Amino acid sequence: MTTDTIPGTDRSFLFVLGSSRADGNTEILARAAAAQLPAAIPQRWVDLNELPLPDFQDGRHESLSWAPGESEEALRQATVGATDVVLVSPLYWYTLSAQTKRYLDYWSGWLTVPGSDFKERMAGRTLWGVTVMADRDESVADGLVTTLNNSAAYLGMRFGGVLFGNGSRPGQVRNDERAMIRAKSFFQREAPLARFPHEER
Q1: Please, which residues bridge with residue 45 across strands?
Q2: Half-sphere exposure in the Cβ direction for 17 (13 Å, CA)
């Protein structure tokens, strides 16, 4: 099954905004790509600055019961309710932003929430990435790509890849003609099951 053959009404997209500023270049690029999706496909946009999470405390191996906070539970429900999760993060120090990485850290806790079946529910869904960076060499973002690919592989998800853009000053990504062209067809590309590098070898 490929993403471009799934009926539109069967899909729903969750866009997770992980920038430190609103309406940043990465969000601009993500919205340009999202605008190409059929109107029948639901989109939900979540700004991690508006649904803040405290630093993740790993209590998976402790005996005390764990009660998720309101923001955490809202994010968990939004995550498991989407067929496609898009992490929208600028490149910060060659990887995901702190907000985005913290959101992923919470996935670790959700693996053991009683009755959540998080890993089973995420299997077969699709993870995507959108990032904008000052460097024009996309290889400098290999760390970000590896994080997303391996996270998807661990959960048995598909990985649609990363949409790259170039920009630093506010709105500068709009001048990146190549990025804007790629945005038009980004979500139409095939998203194969993610594999760890050693599995591909």
Answers
A1: 15
A2: 22
